[in-house]
Amino acid sequence: MDIQKLLFTGLSALMILSCAGNAEQEKPDGTNDDNGSASQEYDWDSIADAAQNSLEMNFWRGDSFGYYWIDNIHDDTSFNHYWQTAHAMETLMDAYERTKDTFFKDRVRNVLARIKQSTSGEYINEYYDDMSWMGLACLRAYSLFGEEEYVNAAKILWNEVQTGWTGDGMLWNKIPDDSGKRNACTHWTAACFGAEMYGITGDSQDLSLAVKIYDWAYGNLYDTLSGATFDQVGSNVYTTYNQGVLIGASLKLYGITGTERYLNTAEKCADFCIDNDKFAKAGIWRDEGASGTLNRNNGIFKGILAHYMTGFIRSSHISTVRRKVYIQYMEKMGVTLYEAAKNDLLFPGDWTRGAEAGERIYLGCELSGVILMECNAIFSREYPDLMKQAGN
């Protein structure tokens, strides 16, 4: 896409609610402008704090259990949402990086201890994409906290993930009946995980396998016309989270190798994510699922894309023009969701509305909303001049 066209179309699509008259209105932090006029400024740090508090109050089962409920109704006491726990760890680390509050550091440790206990000390499960998500979270925790438990867990997970490489793509899981499936989520996450592991180990074999997995996915799952990745081989479905980790893997490999193809792929995919009719209609990423039907797994999809888009936005490899378009797109989604859900900060899969009374909100949906608020808090600190309503 031509960057000037991108700027024009992107900014045209990012018209966020204008002020109406001079009626006095409160900011999200409860204050008013000195002149009493309506304000559109948003204190994203305070909003992110409140969103994290909603996650804590509505989903944390308690330190003795060490995990989040799968939803806010609490009628399912089972703990089998391993891969969503990895993203809960990522969300906690977002808060830690923003606040440096050791509460979030301790919570990450508590959550990983529950994963260790639930897997008999091995950290592993039967899905290769799940283990890659967990490994990526552990490597981030190690980079932040320097605790050996995290890097040891990541090494165990990477050793296990490597067994899923067949030479003809990555297995999705260890279930024999699924041995023919080749999914985007498994490939891009494993490529990203391998590249991150190379940064720790310096082992060229880790990088070599990451590149092999990436190249296989690029040749079999990547849509060169749109710049996006299909959900699986033989499918024409696009999902948000797969685009996110494609961007993440591409950015990581570009940083290691300097190969322009990786950066070009990340840019083309990121452009697709804000300018397509597959999941970005009217400038808001839609509910996930093949028919837009949410379940206990796909609610986290948009949060994953937001996470990796933000990593790309923060990189030094993109122009200010492109960064501004991406930020204001994310800002619009944040404003829309915050305004709809600000009464209780329970986030449904539909980012244009708040939760209805008694509605079941899945953990993944809540995490996605919190991640979006944390992303906007990053932008308001690092790029306030590129936002429309930073509140600084």
Please explain how this structure is put together.
The protein has 392 residues and is mostly helical. It has a domain at 45-66 and 74-320: Glycosyltransferase. The chain is 56% helix and 1% strand. It has helices at 3-13, 44-59, 82-99, 102-118, 128-145, 148-162, 184-201, 204-220, 240-257, 260-273, 301-314, 320-341, 363-382, and strands at 222-223, 228-229. Strands 1-2 form a two-stranded antiparallel sheet. The longest helix is centred in the last third of the chain and has 22 residues, at 320-341. The protein is globular and about 50 Å long. 49% of the residues are buried. Residues 1-39 have low confidence and may be disordered.
- The CATH topology of the domain at 45-66 and 74-320 turns out to be Glycosyltransferase
Sheet with the most strands, sense and barrel status: 2 strands, antiparallel
> Percent of residues in helical segments?
55-70%
Question: Any idea of the CATH class of the domain at 45-66 and 74-320?
Answer: Mainly Alpha
Instruction: Examine the secondary-structure arrangement and name the CATH architecture of the domain at 45-66 and 74-320.
Output: Alpha/alpha barrel
